[in-house]
Amino acid sequence: VQLQASGGGLVQAGGSLKLSCKASGFSLDFWTIGWFRQAPGKKREGVSCMRKTTDSERYYLASVEGRFTISRDNAENSWYLEMNNLKPEDTAVYYCATGPPLVSCDVSKMNFWGEGTQVTVSS
Asked: Of 15, 61, 118, 121, which has the highest C-beta tally within 10 A?
């Protein structure tokens, strides 16, 4: 199982980025997929997760609600995080991860992790 994250970069406050995660070695169909981030000196936290393909099963960290959107494409075995109106406090290394069906958006519940991708938002 391998997860490959991409799409990070440097952006000014108010800008947008779209992160992508490509999975290989297993089928995504019913797995929980998510995005997590870790800022310097802070714990890794769940940013957004999706437990099923329906809209009702999405979780967002309160501070990103309304600005970030998670989506998945099972046919491509990929998922995405569209980030709009980025703020300096969104600066972190972002990780994609996947875990068993129906788990919560919790670091401890994820089984597989991708390499991080750096997101830096300048003020």
From this structure: 121
